[in-house]
Write a structure and sequence with these properties.
The chain is mainly beta and 153 residues long. Helices cover 10% and strands 54% of the residues. The protein is built from 1 helix and 10 strands. The model has no long low-confidence stretch (mean pLDDT 82).
Length: 153
């Protein structure tokens, strides 16, 4: 066998020994994708063109403030409301009750990206309205649901 043929034979032997380890299954698991971070302060508007703000920390809504305009008979009043609950964000979504007193409803949200969120404030019914020192009470009146959108600041 010529020296060149011996070199090629040795090379093929080395490749035959090393090849089974290439492209085989790895014993380590692939890294899980890192979920997007929604942490920070968010600000936007509701379908009534009123402000909504909330804070996200550690994948949880830690504070929220939303203005809702409620109309009853001939009176209309804007409430700034929030929630004492601190819902976790799961699958880029959250749900929490907001309000108290005569206005109580549910706010849902979806994070479309790490900088944009949107959602709905559910319809609710009121049977009275307290605006400053004026209190109107009577038959329940339905308030329509509305959307909201916000961006991370």
């Amino acid at each position: 066998m010529t020296p060149t043929a011996r070199f090629h034979a040795a090379t093929l032997l080395v490749l035959a020994i090393l090849a089974p380890g290439c492209g085989g299954k790895s014993s380590s698991s692939p890294a899980s994708p890192t979920p997007p971070s929604f942490n920070g302060n968010w600000r936007g508007t509701t379908g009534q063109n009123l402000p909504i703000t909330f804070t996200v920390a550690d994948n949880t809504i830690t504070a929220i403030s939303v203005d809702i305009r409620a109309t009853y008979l001939s009176s209309s009043c804007t409430y700034t409301t929030g929630s004492s609950q601190r819902p976790a964000i799961a699958n880029n979504t959250f749900t929490l009750p907001i309000g108290g007193g005569t206005v109580t409803t549910t706010l849902t949200g979806t994070f479309a990206s790490s900088t944009a969120a949107n959602g709905t404030i559910a319809a609710f019914s009121i049977s009275g309205l307290l605006c400053g020192s004026v209190f109107v009470i009577g038959t329940p009146v339905n308030q329509a649901s509305q959307t909201w959108q916000a961006t991370r600041q």
